[in-house]
């Protein structure tokens, strides 16, 4: 009875199952991305373009700490999916309990030095000149809510591992809608400026946490843990860590990239260029939501069927996920290539920002249609518990290719060199991922034979 919900991951039609998993994930990501997008629009229109740059400076720090929760969530959820596929319910419970303990320990530990060294951290991430004070205000308040965000990110992946994509979607809907309402109240009505934007964000994290807490105490969850499951188990912690490190390393590289990009662009074009990058960054979060939704929907399907040794279904899920994701990415590509000026005007009326951002946006999204292959490929290795290839493929794009390019290309092409680094790294990392994924499918996903 306990397995009846998750068991459909191993029996239902792959196309139907992927749609069932991906649509709620896509809607959830869409709403969360719209939340970030509209939040940025509100801040830009009601506070000013410098405030957009200030939030962009803070995001990599707060998101890195929160990404610990996502890392622990995705690493543990891969184990939970495979444990449910192998009918090992007790292991799934122990993993979930360990995920909660680890998330609380790591995030609270990091928030303390994050607040203590605030005056050094903000300038290091590009919060210089007029950007510093609004960034400091926003950062201080948002960091108080980051442990709740980390628990939300962890819990959301576990809900998906149980095969409950609709509840995972709801977990993103509540805080997103709440944040927009609080934005209007705190920024526009009460005129609290950056502090209002920060309290709205922190309040939204708390709303999400309360919903996820309700879910796991309700009848909808299969994972009914008790106090004994919270005690850390070395083998489980090691497995969560090895798989979760892939996600953590990805977010660490993202944070480092923000650090380098904000500083390089500030030196090349000042606050205008940092603001342009902030707008493009929001579109990177928002525009690819259907592709990220397919990727999120694919993870539990891949993990469950790998654990159940159903390799034919696993191969079918890889091909179907890539096909759907590429089709959606093409639609995103067309919109961004045709309407970058109109999109930029949603954020700001600053003439300099309006002039610079559309060109940057076109370069950044130039090879979007093929990025789906890279995302699904890296997700596959993580879903089936192969931490090393998952880590290397995840780091290929930004760590091994993109970061070196943003230091080399501007020497020859100035600020344009920063923007063209995006499509070059996307193209090369996709080719590399496609090669390793193809080799994996041909050599290791062979259906086990049974004796008659």
Can you give a write-up of this model?
By secondary structure, the protein is mainly α. The chain has one domain. The protein is built from 16 helices and no strands. The chain has helices at residues 14-46, 49-85, 89-116, 118-124, 132-161, 165-189, 193-217, 234-287, 289-307, 311-338, 340-347, 351-364, 368-383, 387-408, 410-413, 415-444. The model has no long low-confidence stretch (mean pLDDT 83).
The parts where pLDDT drops under 50 for at least 5 residues are none
Mean pLDDT reading: 83
Counting DSSP E segments of at least 2 residues, the number of strands comes to 0
Q: What's the structural domain tally?
A: 1
Content of β-strand: under 5%
Report the principal-axis shape.
globular
Number of distinct helices: 16
Major β-sheet profile: none
The CA-CA distance between the termini, in Å, is 30 Å
Q: What letter string, H or E per element, gives the SSE order? A: HHHHHHHHHHHHHHHH
Radius of gyration: 21 Å
Alpha-beta content class = mainly alpha
Q: Kindly state the percentage of residues in helix.
A: over 70%
Task: Note the main attributes of this structure.
mainly alpha, 0% strand, globular
Describe what is shown at a glance:
With 452 residues, this protein is mainly α.
Explain the layout of strands and helices:
Blueprint: H1 14-46, H2 49-85, H3 89-116, H4 118-124, H5 132-161, H6 165-189, H7 193-217, H8 234-287, H9 289-307, H10 311-338, H11 340-347, H12 351-364, H13 368-383, H14 387-408, H15 410-413, H16 415-444
Helix pairs in contact: 1-2, 1-6, 1-8, 1-9, 2-3, 2-5, 2-8, 2-9, 3-5, 4-5, 5-6, 5-7, 6-7, 8-12, 8-14, 9-10, 9-13, 10-13, 11-12, 12-16, 13-14, 13-16, 14-16
């Amino acid at each position: 009875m306990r397995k009846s919900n998750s068991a459909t991951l191993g029996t239902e039609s792959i196309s139907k199952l992927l749609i069932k998993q991906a649509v709620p994930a896509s809607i959830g990501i869409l709403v969360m991305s719209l939340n970030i997008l509209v939040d940025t629009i509100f801040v830009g229109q009601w506070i000013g373009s410098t405030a957009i740059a200030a939030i962009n400076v803070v995001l990599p720090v707060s998101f890195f700490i929160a990404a610990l929760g996502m890392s622990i969530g995705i690493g543990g959820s891969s184990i939970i999916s495979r444990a449910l596929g192998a009918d090992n319910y007790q292991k799934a419970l122990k993993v979930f309990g360990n995920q909660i303990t680890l998330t609380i320990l790591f995030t609270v530990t990091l928030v303390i030095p994050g607040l203590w060294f605030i005056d050094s951290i903000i300038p290091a991430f590009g919060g210089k000149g007029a950007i510093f004070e609004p960034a400091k205000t926003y950062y201080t308040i948002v960091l108080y809510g980051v442990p709740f965000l980390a628990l939300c990110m962890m819990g959301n992946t576990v809900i998906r591992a149980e095969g409950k994509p609709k509840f995972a979607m709801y977990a993103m809907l509540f805080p997103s809608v709440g944040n927009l309402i609080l934005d209007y109240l705190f920024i526009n009505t009460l005129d609290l400026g950056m502090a209002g934007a920060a309290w709205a964000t922190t309040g939204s994290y708390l709303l999400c946490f309360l919903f996820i807490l309700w879910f796991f105490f309700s009848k909808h969850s299969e994972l009914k843990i008790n106090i004994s499951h919270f005690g850390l188990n070395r083998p489980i912690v090691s497995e969560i860590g090895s798989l979760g490190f892939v996600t953590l390393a990805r977010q660490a590289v993202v944070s480092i990239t923000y650090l380098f990009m904000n500083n390089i662009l500030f030196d090349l074009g000042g606050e205008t260029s940092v603001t342009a990058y902030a707008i493009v960054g929001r579109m990177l979060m928002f525009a690819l939501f259907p592709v990220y939704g397919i990727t999120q929907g694919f993870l539990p399907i891949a993990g469950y069927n790998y654990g159940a040794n159903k390799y034919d279904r696993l191969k079918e899920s890889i091909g179907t996920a890539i096909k759907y994701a590429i089709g959606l990415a093409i639609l995103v590509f067309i919109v961004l290539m045709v309407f970058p000026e109109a999109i930029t005007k949603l954020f700001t009326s600053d003439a300099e920002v309006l002039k610079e951002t559309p060109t940057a946006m076109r370069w950044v999204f130039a090879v979007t249609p093929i990025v789906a292959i890279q995302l699904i490929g890296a997700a596959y290795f993580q879903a089936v518990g192969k931490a090393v290839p998952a880590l290397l493929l995840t780091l290929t794009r930004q760590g091994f290719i993109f970061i070196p390019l943003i230091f080399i290309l501007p020497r020859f092409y100035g600020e344009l060199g920063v923007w063209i680094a995006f499509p070059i790294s996307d193209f090369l990392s996709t080719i590399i991922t496609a090669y390793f994924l193809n080799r994996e499918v041909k050599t290791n996903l062979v259906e086990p034979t049974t004796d008659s």
